[in-house]
Amino acid sequence: MTNFDLYNPTNYIFGKGQIAKLSELIPKNSKILLAYGGGSIFKNGIYNQVKSALSGFEIVEFGGIEPNPRYETLMKAVEIIRNEKITFILAVGGGSVIDGVKFISGAVNFEGDAVEILKKRVLFKDVSKVIPFGTVLTLPATGSEMNSGAVVTIEATQEKLTLGGSALFPKFSICDPTVVASLPKRQLENGVVDAFTHVMEQYLTYPHDALLQDRFAESILQTLIEIGPDVVKNPSDYKLASNFMWCATMALNGLIQKGVPSDWATHMIGHELTALYEIDHARTLAIIGPNLYRVLFETKKEKLAQYGERVWNVEGNSIEEKAEKAIRKTVDFLHVMGMETKLSNYTSDYEKSADFIVNRFEERGWKAMGEKQNITLEKVREIVEMSY
Ligand code: NZQ
Ligand code: ZN
Questions:
Q1: pLDDT given for residue 238 in this prediction
Q2: Where is the Fe-containing alcohol dehydrogenase-like C-terminal domain (predicted)?
């Protein structure tokens, strides 16, 4: 097992009715920016719950944070915070609103052009320099409610870039599984597949000594396989919704990544497909993931075989046979979860993507990715072209 530091200061508050605790969690006398997305919170009652829990606080509202939040939109909130002397931000939404708030939190006191936060992947480490924030999660998927990373799109240049740092953990996150009931089918499917792929990125590498981490990862995968198809059909079933929400948080709150190698190339390539075609994040992962496993078969086959045996109960006479069966099982599961696994299912303009992505990665100097740093630009091209 490799050395690690495990730091996660987010106060995670889980369960029915927990939104009512907001007033105890936000410092008294705070002036709050209440940040949200396109308005789903008005239809499902979450806005009313938040407002009644915050009676007595001074609140400025900022709505309209898009899915795949835009730098240009977020900068408007940065201005409001500076002008209105806001002292606390409350993100009410899914990964996009929470990620947007992480960017806003860091950008308010950032010296220089805030676009550099994204272009130079600035790490925020000093909590005294960021605006504190909490979250009310409305969509289990990203784990953003309990991690310090975020992804923001620059509209002007069609770039989807990451930011983060230890100062950008939420102070608290309220995770009430009853919010799952109002999610559209598409978002439920996305949430399960995003969480599933987060585990795969941190697990599907090569055999190592971190035995417990493998078992954690496999248990999250198994739970998502068990509940995923059902939660899409019955999102108001509390047992399914609560397990879904906890799995999504555990998939990317840092725990399963400790002491092990990780990949993340499926995400890096997937972000480009969202930037280019506005395909939902999870759906880009379903397009790329299986083809990445195929192209990196020699690197990943031992772990694929372990995953096949332990998670899918596959049998076979060789590592290769079990590994191939594991990929097939994964693709079948993605289909059951409502994913299309070919880029041409989403756009007829797919042929430009390989050149575009390879050029972008070259410009950024991303020439060796993956757990063994052996995902070269040639391999990226092969993965993308295989995904057409
Ligand atoms: O905007 P509103 O009106 O709220 O509607 C949203 C949005 O249209 C809707 N929604 C959310 N909660 C709802 C609801 N509709 C009905 N009932 C509810 N309870 O769902 C739509 C999608 O929301 P979004 O926040 O975009 O989805 P998700 O949580 O999947 O977040 C995706 C974003 O997170 C990034 C992705 O790249 C993408 O930009 N990621 C963030 C990560 C992180 N911070 O660690 C890791 C991930 O890998 C991912 O990259
Ligand atoms: Zn993801």
A1: 98
A2: 191-386
